[in-house]
Amino acid sequence: VDNAPSKPRQAALLGGDARETRSNEFFYRLNPVRLCVWLDVARTYVNMAVSRVTVELFYDVISPYSYLAFETLTRYRAPWNLDLKLKPFFLGGVMKESNNRPPSLVPNKASYMTTDLRRLSNFYGVPIKPPDFFLEFITTKSTIKPQRFLIALDMKYPQHLEEVSRGFWKRFYQDNKDIAEEDSVAEVGRAAGMQEDAIKDALAMIKEDRVKKALLENTKLAVDEYRAFGAPTIVAHVAGKPEVFFGSDRFEVMAHVMGKKWLGPKPAEAAKL
Length: 273
Description:
This protein has 273 residues and is of the alpha+beta class. The chain has helices spanning 7-13, 18-28, 32-50, 64-75, 91-97, 107-124, 134-140, 144-156, 161-173, 182-191, 196-205, 209-225, 251-258, 267-272, and strands at 53-59, 82-88, 233-238, 241-246. The protein has two domains: 7-45, no CATH class; 51-272, 3-Layer(aba) Sandwich (Glutaredoxin), CATH 3.40.30.10. Helix 4 runs parallel beside helix 6 and helix 5 crosses helix 12 (209-225). The model is unreliable at 9-14 (pLDDT under 50). It comes from Rhipicephalus microplus (Cattle tick).
């Protein structure tokens, strides 16, 4: 017969606690591989939270790829500890200054874009369906009013900038409704929870020189400083240096450059696995 005291008894004799012993036994019995995985995940989140990175998103609400980038960056704001700065610019001006052409005006690109957006919409979990009047819109109208409206919000009502930006994309790419006219702009503001007096004020501001100048400055900054040629243009400021990325499919590379970890298009879901 083994007369040695039990482990809880040993703990008591040594001045310990039975509960502490049971806790230790739990960790001893853990699968080493599983424990390593847990520790790796914990270490990843600690590292991601340590360094705050400023990221500028230059975007135009006519761009579906900007919509994908916008939703992805807002999802990663906490996991990557981002100081995300939304920078509305005018894509028409970017195209002109960089001698570029919209992909929808190049037949082969337009055909590919239709398939590409369908796949990306499913991958990112962001519903996108270009309206039937898309080509007519980009050839006869512009997003100058919604982009100036966003600038006005950034100046005076910054708490609404993110949700109104999202609202323009939803109205155009999900509801398939106009976003160019002032009535349409006002509807987006209402849907985003803005008060009528704030909507009226911001609409009045889009006619002001300071708003026009600010949109022009954002556009020139993107083109002249960051060599932008389309949307979205994303600038991550890492170790005092601007790292420029184009499009909505460079996030894995961006994560590597910033010392973060890419967890897929839906980081909140990935963290639960």
